Structure formats: structure tokens, C-alpha cells
Amino acid sequence: MCPPPAVAPVEGWVDPAVLFAHWISRSAHAFWLDAGPDAPDGWSWLGEGAPASLSDVRAADLTASASSVEDAAAGPFRGGWVGWLGYEGGAANAGAPVRPDDLAPDAVWLRAERFVAVDHAARRLWAVAPAGDSEWAETVRDRVASLAGADAPVPEPTGDRRVARGRHEPGEYAGLIERCRDAIREGDAYQLCLTTRFSLDGAVDAASVYLRLRALTPAHHGGYIRSGDVALLSASPERFLEVADGVARTRPIKGTRPRSADPEEDAALAAELRASPKERAENVMIVDLMRNDLSRVSEPGSIRVDKLLEVESYAAVHQLVSTVSSTLAAGTTAGDLLDATFPAGSMTGAPKLSAMTILHRLERGPRGVFAGCFGYVGDDGVVDLAMIIRSIVVHPDGAYVGAGGGITWGSVAADEVAEVGIKARAPLAALGAVLPEGW
């Protein structure tokens, strides 16, 4: 266990987007775990990191918390690791066949020791550094003072409406939906999360694209993680795993409807989602799968369904969300928890191994970083990981966006194709691109 960090208040307030645009984004190894533009509450963290080993992340003990009142003043994350895990590594670890993707590393983690913590509710900034380090607080104070009064950057429109390259044609994807239904009819699965990919070639300014993405589709689990020439830009609405005081929580999302500018139509869409037998069944299936996954590393009898089938509304979509929690068994490490739960059931289907094997055959291409998870693992056992959905993966030759949806026996192919378009549209727009015809 590392000693408690040095936590220092910073006088004044600067929008975290200003700190990002004029400072943090210029680093080769940088992160911004982002509560969203104009967030009324919650926390954000921005900083520079150093490339770290996944084995160190996996070894973190999640049941030996040593937090203190002083540490808590700067929010739940007090130092540790920030990064991502891609889908392929998790699927392989679970015994499923995979296709490695060479566009971006399957796992990227940064050691995060010096960063700025942003308390949105109190509009306060904190400098967090290793114990005994007083220079970082002065650096942050100087930066904040120099940027006082600066307006948050306004994302420039791209003016470039390129057409993304789809892995599948819409009709082809509809055919794969029918093959999913065939597998369900045969009893090989009872839910399958079928995905596809949209790609663009050419250089991408990751920082500028992220600012556009968060403006287009604000989310409580936004994220920018860059390491060298690869980056993850996310506006994820789905928390995968949260751990605090030895209690793990997961919040699977299954069920989506678009938003409408007309209030009555918007309310009707939310009500339709809440009442949909197909969407409710799909959500409950994944709740049961996550209960089973968590039971592998939890105290007997501690699994709880805290919330079931609640509609949450975001800028572009309504989502159907549930919450499952448990008390972790003593000595559970981050690696133990990930081995039991990752990839998330909301991105595989159920039964999980059978679903991943079927999807490998149908999708015919790697998911890569998409459908993985990102966030932080703290030195003190606190974890917050979000799903890599509504996201952009930037690599040296371009960028890609993954999207998909859960298929059940009750799925209608045209509806599922439309849902993919709804999910991919905003990330592609941030890149200055549009969907191929038919999506």
C-alpha cells in the first residue's frame, strides 16, 4: 500500500476543458477522466502519466482500503493507474477465440501520481501528488493563475463530411442478426451482442476530436487517454465496475431509444423503452449474467440487485439500466475481479463463453479496444471503469468507431440496424464523418 498522497487546494477556478486544451493535451502520455461539460456534480481528473505494466494494475488489492478523511477531500481517486483494457485480451483470457488487432494496443495503462482533481459541485481544484512532493502543487497553481478568465475552448466544426468505411453493409448486418436468432433457436445462446466497426483513414487530432465528442454527446464517464500515437476518446454512458470499501457494483445497459426534440415524443420514446418486453428481457438476462460473474469473487450471499430496469436519458439516447452489487471476498485483486467479469456481459451476451465464440464467427473481425473498459484503479483499492462504447480509437493510420446491439429471439433486424446507426452517429460526427448509406 502506498502512503497517502499530498493533497493541496488550488485557489481559483478554471474549467477543466481549459486545463486540457492549454496544458494536459500537449503531453505524450495524458489522461482526462471527464464528468462532462458544465457538470453540476461529480469529479474529473486530468494529468500526465508514465506508461505502466498491466501486471501492476492486476495486483492491486481491492479489499485493503486505507483511505483517510484528508484524502477524501480531493475525491475518490487518490493515485494509481489510468488506462484501458481492450475486448480481445479479455475474451482470450476467458477462453474465447479472438483476432488480435494491430491498430492499437489491447491494454494501455499510465501510472497516475501527479494530477488535478476537479470537484464540480464545489467548483474547486486540488493538486494531488506523491507524499512529500510540494512542487506539483506550485506547478498547478501557476497554470491555473495563468489561465484565469480563459474561456473553455469551442470545438471547431470539421467542415469535412467524409463517409466512414463500414465493416459490414446494413443488409449484411441484418443477415447476421438472423444468424444470431438461429443460434438462439438452437439453444446455443439466449442473447448475443452483435457489433460492427466504422473506420477512417488519415491523421486525427485526438485532442480536438475529443472536445467535439464531449460537446456532441455529453456523458458522465467521458474520457481521453493518450499514450504516444494511440488514444481513446470516449463519451461512455455505461459504468462497468465500481469498487469502494470492498463493495463492487456494475451497471449494465441494455435497451436504447433515440432522443427527440419534441418533449411529448421524447417522453413517449422513454416510456416505450421502459415497457418493451424485448428490451426488459435483454436487460434482465445480463443482470443474471453479472450476478453470476460477481459471485465468483464475492462473499456468499452478498449479491444484490440494487436497481432494475431504470431509464436514464443522455443527450442522444435513452438507456435501460440496472445495478448489481456485491461484497468482495478478502484479498480480491483487480486481476481476480477482471478475470471473473471481463469482458462485460452487456458486450458479449449469454452464456458468455458460448456467446463470444459465436460472435467471433459472425463478426469476422477484431473488436480491438472497442467493447473493453477504461478508467482508474487506485492504489487504495478504489476502482471506476466504464465501458468502451460511444467511443473513438485513434491510431497512427486513422481512427475507428465500434457499435452494436443486443440480439434476442424477439429482435427485429431493421430496428437493430437503426440502433447501430444511432450509437455510431455522434462519434463519427466528432471525426467529421458520416455513416455509410443505409445505416
The share of residues in extended strands comes to 25-35%
Helix/strand/pairing category: alpha+beta
Q: Regarding CATH, which class?
A: Alpha Beta
CATH architecture: 4-Layer Sandwich
The number of distinct structural domains comes to: 1
CATH superfamily: Anthranilate synthase
Biggest β-sheet description: 20 strands, antiparallel
Distance between the termini: 50 Å
Query: Helical proportion?
Result: 25-40%
- Radius of gyration equals 21 Å
What is the CATH topology descriptor?
Answer: Anthranilate synthase
Q: How many individual β-strands?
A: 22
Number of helices: 12
Short description, anyone?
The chain is an alpha+beta fold and 439 residues long.
Describe what this molecule looks like in 3D:
The protein has 439 residues and is α+β, with helices and mostly antiparallel strands. The chain has one domain: Anthranilate synthase. It contains twelve helices and 22 strands. β10 and β11 form a beta hairpin. α7 crosses α12. The mean pLDDT is 93.
